[in-house]
Design brief:
Elements: H1 7-49, H2 55-66, H3 72-83, H4 88-100, H5 103-116, H6 119-123, H7 126-131, H8 134-147, H9 150-158, H10 163-176, H11 179-184, H12 192-202, H13 205-213, H14 218-230, H15 239-245, H16 250-263, H17 266-275, H18 279-291, H19 296-304
Length: about 300
Amino acid sequence: MKTTIRPRALALALATALATTTSVLVAHTALAQDADSDSRALRMAAIEALMMAPPERALPLLNKLLASEQDKEIKARALFILGQIDLPEAHEAILEFARNESGELQLEAIRTIGISGDPELTSGLGDLYRNGDARVRRAVLEAWMIAGDEDSVFEVAANAGSDEEFEAAVHQLGVMGATDRLAELRDRPGMSESLVQAFAIAGDTESLEVMARDASDSERQLAALRGLGIAGGPDDPDFFVEIYQGTDDPAVKDAVRQGILVAGDEESALRLFKAARNDREKAELLRLLVIMDSDAAFEAIDEALGGDGQ
């Protein structure tokens, strides 16, 4: 007698078979992934072990690994270890890798050189900077910054061929707190905004105050006033008030207000509000106090409304 399989039963049978097959495939895939994960973990452990090995024994193995087809993360770790080996052969190896590699691993090699802080290594980045693309140049500047190599960064700024190159270099000098080097660049024409920002990043309020008082270069003066806010405010608590009250230039007054806002200098804002010479000025300063979310804003609002504070 021929057996007849109903459509619903057939569907259930197929679903069960498919589920069983899928479970088997998932299990095999998980085992394969676990095996790959274990193998990779073993390779990473082997690389870590090289940190404790004698440098002359570790170096050939690291060079061999970097020339292999290992994945980027493993090679990046190998580069870091190579950067810690204080041997001329290791220095040459990592510089050669940075010169000949491309993409993320090249940038990683450059960063590793910066982290090493070795002057012999960082000085070797000059050719890479001169011949590299924008990403390589940015990575080299960052490496010099990490290594504290003010001389190399200053040379880039002093000889910059474009505004963008100058701005990138002075920004790194600001991050490094290289105020003496920045002072040497102060009179460079057409570069005032980026240079003032670098002084602000470096926290050099003394230089910023000098530039903010100098009205001979209006662009630089306005940038310095704003920069003082970035730097946390001037050292002199009366500075913003004196500059604001000593000028009729709307641009200077606006720059002072911006500096006060960024610095969070509520005291100066309130002093200026109380001493304002006309209602328009009071309104500008009242808006400033409100934006700053200052408790003093309510006092100013009450005064503006003619209240008695009750």
